Amino acid sequence: MTADINRKKAEIQTLDLAAVLRGRVQDVYGPGTEIDGLVRLSGGASRETWSFDALLPDGKRKPLILKRDPLNEIRDGNTDGQPGGANVLLGVDRWTEGRLMQLAGEVGVPVPEVPFFLDADDRTSAGFVMQRLDGEALGRRILREDAYAQARPKLAFQCGEAAARFHDIPIDRLPELPSLTATEALDYHQDVIDAFKQPHAGFEYGIHWLRERLELAGDRLTLVHGDFRNGNLLVDGAGLRGVLDWELGQLGNPISDLGWICIRAWRYGYYDKPVGGFGEVADLLDGYEAAGGGRVPLERLRFWEAFGCLRWGVVCMIMAFTHIDGRERSLEKVSIGRRAVEGEYDLLQLVD
Amino acid sequence: MPTDRPTAAELVEAVREFLTDHVAPNVEGQLAFHTRVAVNALAIVERTMAQGGAMDDAELARLRELLGQDGDLGEMNGALARAIRSGAMDNDRAAVLEHLRLTAEDKIALANPRYLTPRG
Amino acid sequence: MDAVQNPDLTAGEQLAAVLRDRMAVEYGPGTKVEDLVRLSGGASRETWSFDAVPPSGARQPLILKRDPMDRQADKQFEGVPEGRLAVDRWTEGRLFQLAGGAGTPVPEVPFFLARDERTTEGFFTQRLEGETLGRRILREDTYAGARPKLAFQIGHAAARFHGIDLDLLPPMRGLPAAEELLHYRSIMDSFHQPHAGFEYGFRWLQERLEQAGDRYTLNHGDFRNGNILVNPDGLRGVLDWESAHLGNPNSDLGWMCVRSWRYGYHDKVVGGFGDVSEMLDGYEAGGGGRLDPAEIYFWQVFGTLRWGILCMILGFTHIDGEQRSIEYAAIGRRAAETEYDLLQLLN
Hints:
- The complex is a heterotrimer.
- Chain A is about 45% helix and about 15% strand.
- Chain A has eleven helices and nine strands.
- In chain A, the strands form three sheets. Chain A has a five-stranded antiparallel β-sheet with strand order 1-2-3-5-4.
- Chain A starts with a helix and ends with a helix.
- Chain C has two domains: about 10-125, 2-Layer Sandwich (Phosphorylase Kinase, domain 1), CATH 3.30.200; about 135-345, Aminoglycoside phosphotransferase (APH), C-terminal lobe (Aminoglycoside 3'-phosphotransferase, Chain: A, domain 2), CATH 3.90.1200.
- Helices cover about 45% and strands about 15% of the residues of chain C.
- The interface of A and B includes residues 201, 205 and 352 of A.
């Protein structure tokens, strides 16, 4: 019964969205443009993604993706993987996310084009539309499948290049973003851990170690992607095709992006390749330097990799406590909770 | 814990076998994925029941040595965390780090033993 | 001669052929077999329901209970110590007939099925209307009128079959009280799992062996709510005679009082539907004489202990790997319920 009602509801939502999108593609591509093949991709609670084609009057087809806020739920920081108790860091809104992709594209970062936005009204939540590119985004497949064998050796360098370019976007051109210096980011993670009321000697040691070495962090404050890792990269046979998922974009220390892409969680078992399971640190830093980001000292990268391990561990704990506190009972979340020790273990290998 | 058999560990094993042998082959999609997640979670519980006691004893012994005090595992870990934060352990760094690494290794051995061996 | 399942046929198809041949003999040529369906999924016995439809004459609703065609399942059952007590299908069917002859309500057993190359041994019973699920008997309005009568009728029925002349019975295993205790004692020991609660129970029983009574008769062996057929008028049949043996008749009455068959209706000691005094009244009315409640109490304690050990048997069937089963593993832990019940009963 409920299943029937939910199916009906989903059908109506799809019809409503089709009408909204038809209106927008006619604004953008001209009267007579139709939409075709509208289908929902992700069932994620935090964002909806939909795939569709715009059919232009001249017969051309534009393959597109819509990413919008969830229609039914009140937007909630928790679903972004942020804890309830501590000083919550929200992801950016859809307009900002789409805008960041446009800005990144303008400075030469490979990203899908963002041709238009959806404003929230009585029929839809806010969202943006991007090109649907061919390629693979699943980290495990990128590392394993023969189709990407030629791409893999190039990826670390290309990721370095891409990061250097978006780190270089002048701050006054950016939309309003949350901002976190290295010190603030450390404080934030400490607050989150404290909110669990579960003392954690391993992470405490890591935080203490990082605090003692704050001067290693560097003091640039730039646009950072915030979740720059294997899993948010679109790869095709030729190499890096797009940097995706800008919803954690913020102002911060640029090397935090480089440290994050090096943590073991994104290597999917290919541990001998520190950068995303596909490449070497030297390639990443060469690419970064080649695209004008300067030469990053290894000590600084190590600082941010250690920080990344801490952050991954804390993200796992946030997931677990989302379940434990009963905000969202989920077998998947509670299981991820035990992966916190992976971050802790790696952190303790990196520090001295 | 009572000694009645099947023990808790044997019951968890039975549930895991039930999921692996009878549920997993008959479900697909999200449910199949969540069945694998459940099987993994039970495997953690089984490993904890088998090895957790000895690990706790060893951790507690190390904590006593480090902190020069006694208490249960929760209290002692809280004390160590506070001491690290305040800098009180800065002069015992090597010993603290060694303890933390051993503890993390034990925890990995329970949570995801494959983490320590590369796949490829 | 072992029965073999023809791989080109389903179990039902092979059995249908056997039944057609057999029903033609019993009810005349041209008798059809309709609505053949397997009832129990139990590994140890197969039960099948069907109708025999003679060309002229009344439709016969029947049940067949036979040994499992799957030899492996049979072997597993025999691996359970309790299983070694069980009688064969021939004896079981014969006991239905003898009990019916003595005035115990049972479904009629019109004929038997001999073992050949196509089927294992079995017997047929009338398929009667009524309910056998203990929980439903206790809960459903349909049986509200029946429930107050059941304890008396149970006592009466038991007195009737306990009174069957030993000379009339087929050969069966005999277990006097002391030996029965020893039997469960040795099962317990075979687990190599010391159990202080059950040990206390054994000790208690050992000290009071003289309370067991000294009669020696046919025992049903699994006389409980769950093995009786009830209709709105009351007791319609006593079923499942496969655990029958010779022994102390009070054992059946004590077993009927074990809390596990009360399905939550704990204040009704007899099967969740009645009182001991009603059962004893029925027993007396059935010609069994006036029994001493202390003897029943002894056997209730014994029954509780026995059920605990049966739970452990199933638990260890899983643990030892004889048959891995989440159901058996879970039942294993129900031994704690009987341990609790046992310790409540002891003084």
